[in-house]
Amino acid sequence: MHAPEVLISEDDIQKRVTELAQKISADYSDTGDLVMVGVLKGSFIFLADLSRNLSIPRTIEFIAVSSYGDSSAPSGAVRLVMDVRGNIEGKDVLIVEDIVDTGHTLKYLIGIMKSHRPASVKTAVLVRKADSAKVDVTIDYLGFDIGNEWVVGYGLDFAEQNRTLPYIGIIDPTDR
Q1: Is 98 annotated in the active site?
Q2: Does the pLDDT of residue 34 top 90, yes or no?
Q3: CA 122, CA 58: separation in Å to the nearest integer?
Q4: For residue 10, what are the CA distances in angstroms to 39, 61, 72, 90, 127?
Q5: Of 33, 92, 101, 145, which residue is the catalytic one?
Q6: With 98 labelled, which of 24, 87, 151, 163 sits at a CA distance of 20 to 30 A?
Q7: Among 142, 133, 136, which Cα is nearest to 101's?
């Protein structure tokens, strides 16, 4: 596989994550009960950097879902693999997701979080493929809109490869 073509540079990512963290910190400055819920595995780098840039108290939980399996095309079927372990009832929840493609996964996650009876549920998403949307889902804090390319890096992967690149790059999944 060829090296990914840079789509979003490391500097641009860090600048945007800092901007998002400032907005989130301002929006949640009066609550004190923010729970960031990272969606494994892809959100872990975004979640870590976003959390480190916040100026407010927060706790971190993780959730895992499966929507792609080993395929390069989203199926629309979403399955819960691991739910949050802590009690989020009455707390403000911020779902932190790496990518929104069709919107099915994020819509499913919002429903799962709401079933825990939190005070609120909002979303922070690193990248969105706006042209791929199949369901209407609100993204409260968005890093970047991208085209319909297959992207890797900064948590995003293809078959578990290129997840730890410091930038977001484009690959051709058929070039293996």
Answers
A1: no
A2: yes
A3: 14
A4: 21, 25, 25, 36, 14
A5: 101
A6: 87
A7: 133
With helix as H, strand as E and coil as C, how does the chain read? CCCCEEEECHHHHHHHHHHHHHHHHHHCCCCCCEEEEEEECCCHHHHHHHHHHCCCCEEEEEEEEECCCCCCCCCCCCEEEECCCCCCCCCEEEEEEEEECCCHHHHHHHHHHHCCCCCEEEEEEEEEEHHHCCCCCCCCEEEEEECCCEEEECCECECCECCCCCCEEEECCCCC
Summarize pLDDT for 46-67 with one digit per residue, the tens: 999 999 999 999 999 998 887 6
The per-residue pLDDT for range 85-96, each reduced to its tens digit, is 888 899 999 999
